[in-house]
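Exercise 7. Given the encoded structure of a 126-residue chain, write a plausible sequence.
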């Protein structure tokens, strides 16, 4: 790979970063179409491969631009659960495994029934 190829690859990467600045789907789609056409004309197989992968997921990328939502929190919780499972090397029962998940993922409520969160009288009147 010559210096020209490296420069073209760098330019393709830098230009693609502008895609994330768009807020309207139409403009983002138009930018991507132009960028994809330019990259496809290059002779850089790795860059062409990445551009084709992005084209396959273009609808998802445009949806992100509209909503700005990801599944990062879900992936993080799944990672914690998998590490808990690996560290335990097996549980005596599935019930014990299910109890530990909320404990380690931070959603276990430690307040007793009669705590400040819920008055004692309402616990028995509900």
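Solution.
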């Amino acid at each position: 790979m010559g210096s020209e190829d490296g420069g073209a690859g760098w330019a393709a990467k830098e230009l693609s970063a502008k895609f994330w600045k768009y807020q309207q789907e139409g403009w983002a789609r138009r930018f991507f179409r132009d960028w994809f056409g330019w990259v496809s004309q290059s002779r850089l197989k790795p860059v062409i491969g990445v551009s084709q992968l992005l084209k396959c997921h273009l609808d998802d990328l445009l949806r992100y631009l509209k909503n700005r939502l990801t599944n990062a929190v879900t992936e993080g919780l799944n990672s914690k659960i998998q590490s808990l499972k690996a560290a335990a090397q097996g549980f005596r029962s599935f019930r014990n495994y299910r109890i530990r998940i909320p404990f380690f993922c931070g959603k276990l409520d430690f307040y007793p029934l009669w705590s400040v969160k819920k008055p004692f009288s309402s616990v028995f009147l509900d």
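Remark. Helices lie at 3-16, 25-41, 45-56, 58-67, 72-88, 94-105, 120-125. Students should compare their own answers with the one above.
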